[in-house]
Design a protein that fits this description.
Number of strands: 14
Helix content: under 10%
Shape: globular
Number of helices: 1
Distance between the termini: 55 Å
């Protein structure tokens, strides 16, 4: 049976209609993880919903669509560093534990930083299942990131059943962030991390070569603020970077139930089809950029 595309749940907060600043679709990437034993941290940033494959196992255990670490047998807890694909203000988080029912982390926290290029030298990321970071790099990365700003203090998570998997958190902070540190306590699995917010672009740094500028683009602060229908796809997909991967990576509405049973031609020889669909995109800025 066909599945609806991932969109706002009926009980989800309003911020889930904002742009996801962290998914790999917009350039988000994992820079460091303490442990990738059962499943790699890169899965956190997949744009689609988590999947369950019954009876599928890897050399290390049950195949899981998320980031899953092994049980801690050394001091500390597991964590990973995420470079946001689009820097901006974070309005809300969804720590999604889907399908991690007996192996989800009991608690989590999130820290954030706004880093200039090369502010921190991260080790080369290999992203290998069944691996863990070397102890010396864990120590170095911990020292470099442990004092980042807490935007979500240590908070309890719920298991990955359909009714409890989405752990939504509103973030009351207006700063611009480029990187996050997701901490899980002490170990376990998280399916997805959604980072909802708005891009913040420094418009004073626009160069001549960048003009004309797409003022509606997600990376330039554009956002979808209204729509008539989003049955198959969210209108924010219209302003995502790059080309759509497939028809599901765009805005698609359901067919109108009020359409006539039999289409007829009007006096002007055009089909009489009532109604229309619409979406409203707020521009990232009201500035006017043009070449002289």
């Amino acid at each position: 049976m066909a599945q609806r595309s991932e969109k706002r749940l009926s009980d989800a907060p309003a911020f889930v209609d904002l742009n996801d600043l962290s998914c790999n679709r917009v350039g988000g990437k994992i820079l460091f993880a303490t442990d990738d034993w059962f499943a790699e941290a890169e899965n956190l940033l997949k744009p689609g919903p988590p999947e369950w494959h019954e009876g599928v196992f890897t050399s290390y255990g049950k195949w899981m669509d998320g980031w899953e670490t092994r049980r801690k047998r050394i001091p500390g807890h597991d964590w990973c560093i995420i470079k946001l694909g689009i820097a901006g203000v974070i309005k809300g988080l969804d720590i999604d534990t889907s399908y991690f029912t007996g192996n989800y982390p009991p608690k989590a926290s999130v820290q954030a930083a706004c880093l200039e290029k090369d502010h921190i030298v991260f080790p080369e990321r290999k992203s290998l299942m069944g691996s863990e970071a070397p102890a010396d790099w864990i120590k170095k990365m911990a020292a470099a990131t442990e004092l980042w700003t807490d935007i979500l203090p240590m908070t309890e998570l719920r298991p990955g059943y359909p009714s409890t998997a989405h752990n939504f958190f509103c973030i009351n902070n207006s700063q611009r962030w480029t990187h996050l540190r997701l901490n899980i306590y002490p170990d376990g699995g998280v399916a997805r991390l959604r980072v909802y917010g708005l891009a913040v672009k420094d418009w004073t740094q626009i160069t001549y070569k960048e003009i004309p500028v797409d003022l509606a683009a997600m990376e330039n602060g554009g956002s979808a603020v209204g729509w008539s229908n989003m049955h198959y796809g969210h209108p924010r997909n219209l302003i995502a970077p790059g080309s759509a991967a497939n028809m599901g990576d765009g805005w698609e509405t359901a067919r109108r139930l009020d359409r006539p049973s039999v289409l007829e031609l009007g006096e002007d020889e055009c089909l009489k089809v009532p109604g229309f669909e619409w979406s409203v995109i707020r521009l990232g800025t009201s500035r006017n950029y043009k070449k002289d």
